[in-house]
Design brief:
The chain is built from 4 helices and 36 strands. The chain has about 550 residues and is mostly beta strands. The strands form 3 sheets. It has a 10-stranded parallel barrel with strand order 14-16-18-20-23-26-24-21-19-17. The longest helix is centred in the N-terminal third of the chain and has 12 residues. The model has no long low-confidence stretch (mean pLDDT about 90).
Length: about 550
Amino acid sequence: MAVVQISRIQIRRGQKNAGSGLPQLASGELGWAVDTQELFIGNGSVSEGSPAVGNTKVLTQYDNIFTLADSYTYREADAFLLTGGTVDSPVRRTLQARLDDRVSVRSFGLTGQVSQIATVRLQAAIDQLYLNDAIKGSAQSRVILHLEPGIYVIDGPIYIPPYTTLVGAGADKTIIRTLTASVDMFTTINGDSIVGTPASNASTTTINQPTRIRLEGMTLETTVPNKALVLNNCKNSVFKDVKFSGPWVSGSAVAVTDVAIQMNSLSGAVETKNNVFEDCTVNGFAYAVISDWDIHNNSWSNCEFYDLAYGIAFGTQLISLDILEGSGKQIGPYNNRWNNCKFNDINKNAAWVKYGKGNVSENNFYTMVGTEGAAEYLATNSILKYQTPGNSSIGDYFSRTAVLSYTPGYWTNYPYIPEIEGAVIAAFGELHVLNSITSGLAQKRFRLPGEIDIASQQFEIEYVLSSRNYSAVRSGVATLTVNGIDKTVTVSDAYDYIGTTAYEDAISFSALIQDADGDAENETIDVLLSSTMPVDDLTQLEFKIRNRKTTIDATGE
């Protein structure tokens, strides 16, 4: 009968960090460190061909290869770029350290799939990076948190502390979405907040207020009326390539809770200020931007606003200003600016300033604004509504002007609802050309808005008249002054002339205030030109318009 013997093979073992440390293993001998879970094998002697006497570590499931890989060097093969003192001594880092240079939401368990509710994990990532007690407030905490392409569904607010930097893959690539009602998607909080607990807004000071926040390359999308971004006392922050998308469509209810960007201040000292919105898009909200506080020096550039009830609304929900010093509602929004932006399909006003001054609209394009979704010639609202003196429009383009001013087919039955309503100094950006002024009595050539509620206004028509067939060139400013009380208008003309003396004053301006729609209100100004030039002449008129208006009931001091 055969004898069967079962043997157990064991290798040398012990604690690596006990006693004198890891012993020298014999050639080919295995040794297991039970405390560190590491496996080693003896190198053998030099006489056997070993490069050196010692032990070699064998990789196991317990090893982190990133901590072992310490050979990363930036452009190691480039002899002309030194990361260290010499070519032979480059800066070497572990692979783990190199990968940790870039922080991804993936590292906090976010998948970017609609099946995952991302609220808790996204907030945890923000809290750990920007509110962690070990690094909070230090430069080391001001890292960039990357959101890879995907849809991140949230069912509650995400709180944004100072120095938070969230960078996505781009608008409509990285999408933060909520399907839940009554959710302020992103809300800024002060630096006294701790992990898991936002600080009270009332505790905000000039020292701890939200600052240096950056949101870039993402879409904030709500499928139900909500506030997408609430800036509480936020300063010196940047929002770039952010798309704010909501469900609002023309004819829907208009509510102050349906807002893309709300800007609040706590007091006269703790304000939302010096924030920049660049290359952003806002659509599908009752209000694109709303504030009833003393916010200032905020700007929007190269942004697009469309499919909204209102664009920018400042002080519109205030009954009156608060005269108490430091109240945060003493002035209203002031010294804010939007430039090189596009406003399209805005039901009411593209900008409505009830309280606040020094706000400037500059070089913007306004199309299909103030029509309640109807055609341009059926305008019902002004494009810019300034109820407080001291706001301005510089170089803006209004598509309404060409329709209601220069298109004869709309001169009858359609009143000229003004591009800019209220007390304002405005310089229209468009250059207009009339190239068929013929000899004859006064003829209507274009219209201007009379604006029945204005106490007085003045139009300056800066022009150049050029004859096509005769030596006659005249440049000057025709000034129309309107008395809003009795609805009368006077015209004066100051000019320079070069050419044949007989033609110097051949063309003259006049104006009439008319009732265009038969409602017994004289609301439209007809501008007429008469010419005594020869009958074979065609004179060209090039002109731009400046407008100054004041009201007796403007909201002011």
